[in-house]
Amino acid sequence: MLLLCFVCAGCGSIPLQDDHYFCDPWVPNNCPLGFECRFSTTQHGFRCMKEAGFCGDGRCDLSETRTNCPVDCFCGNGTCDAAEYSSWCAQDCFCGNGSCDVGETISSCFEDCPVSECGDGICSEDEDSSSCPSDCGLCGNGACDIGETPSTCPQDCGVCGDHTCDPDESPVTCPQDCGVCGDHTCNPDESPVTCPEDCGLCGNEVCDPTEWIGSCPRDCYCGNGTCDTGEASTDCPQDCGGPYCGDGNIDQGEQCDGTNFGGATCESLGYNPGSLTCLADCKIETAGCGGPLHPCTPNPCSSPPQDYCVDEIATTFPETGDCTEIGGLPECSYVPLQQDCASGGLVCQNGSCLPPVDPCSPNPCDSPPPDGCSGQIALHYSATGDCTDIGGAASCDYPFVSEDCASQDLICTYGTCTQAGVLISEYVEGTNYNRYVEIYNATSSPVDLDGYKLRLYTNGSTTPTFEIAVPQHILSPGAVYVIGNPSGMLYAEDLSSTGLTFNGNDAIELTDSSLRQLDLIGTIGSTIYFGQDQTLIRKPGIFIGSTAFAPTDWDPLPADTHQLGSHSP
Hints:
Layout: E1 3-8, E2 12-17, E3 36-40, E4 45-49, H1 133-136, H2 154-157, H3 175-178, H4 196-199, H5 237-240, E5 277-278, E6 284-285, E7 308-310, E8 313-316, E9 322-326, E10 329-333, E11 337-340, E12 347-349, E13 352-354, E14 372-374, E15 377-381, E16 386-390, E17 393-397, E18 400-404, E19 411-413, E20 416-418, E21 422-429, E22 435-441, E23 447-448, E24 453-457, E25 466-469, E26 474-475, E27 480-484, E28 495-496, E29 507-511, E30 517-521, E31 534-538, E32 554-558
Parallel strand pairs: 27-28
Antiparallel strand pairs: 1-2, 3-4, 5-6, 7-8, 8-11, 9-10, 12-13, 14-15, 15-18, 16-17, 19-20, 21-22, 21-31, 22-27, 23-26, 24-25, 24-29, 29-30, 31-32
């Protein structure tokens, strides 16, 4: 052991042992002159030690932390380090570990915190300024000694929250004044030596968290490779990641950057060969280039007029013209070349002589007219027509096949032979006695209506409730025959019958002389209203009656409006 001694007023010479006496790392000047309070791995606690510590000596010294010396300072190393306490690292900091840790006292853990002796230079818990002034001093000596409190000695002890880490305060008892090393704030009890990660050290060539360009320009300056406090990409892009002149990239507002000219050369800028220079402000300097180029070097004449045709004479121009300098500017001329296309059996198109085009190859005739009717003859056109070249243009003629519909007792409709017959073309159910039924001859031959009947099925009856027999009458093709109630006021009917009194839900059937059903409006046996207070007109394109009523075959009109007297199929 190294034996030391020191002299104090009124106590004489006292020998001091290294790595022996307990000390509180949070109380300034807690050890005699020449000693410092450090954690001892041999004594497993804080002791006054003479030797200067270093990272890797197995001791977590006051200047060491888990950040700058993790090999000595870590939770689980079996020692209660300076920044550890029982609630944070219980596996190292506990009563009985042989170390008087932060927060432990003689009364709370006597086995780790033994009684000291008056005159050992340490003001222990069981000592105060009255019992041992040689160790603890007196109130007013600027030190908050053991036995003194903010109430008994405010001039030495102060109050927690006064922004001063007093001797009786620690990060555990008063974190708002003392703080913790590593909290990015240089607290009153911290210094660049005891806590460099918070307090930094101006001149260490590192801009520490508490330094900035105003407080330490030696460490904090634009260009040191670190985006320091107060710097941004707008005012220091080389440190903070923004584009800047000198980064080798041609950014907005720059013509060049270093050796990067973006492909520009003296020639591309209108000068004779030479060397370009990129200035410090990233602008191009052309002083190293030859003089300005001749206006015709390189030849700018590369936009000739459009080739054209006049009759069969083709006029073409060369892709590159002749350049002449006039007043320092280039003047371009293009010598045309003419060719008579007709002399070689060719035709002129867009200034070129080309073989004549056959308008019929390939055959463009693929749009025949729609099938139609010529009287009762149906005309069916071929899908592909015959093409003829007339003056260089295609003329299409579509052959057709004719079909005599009348010979089949059919009629021609839109180029198709369709079965036709006599049918009901109009139904009027108006106000009062305005009741009418119109019969239409859709065939191509006259029809004798003698023996034809209109049969009414009223109120859902399944058998006829009234019949109207049509007398002999020759109905021409396309003509109509109107049967009406004599009290009706809308039209002068061809045949009157007081029995014509339907009301919109009564089916009406048309039969021929053999009682064969030709047409039907409404549904026999049903009372559903299909035509009340309205007029129904047969839609065009229907040429034969139906045995089942389909509302979609009829166009409705308001009550008392009609088209009686004619029908357009």
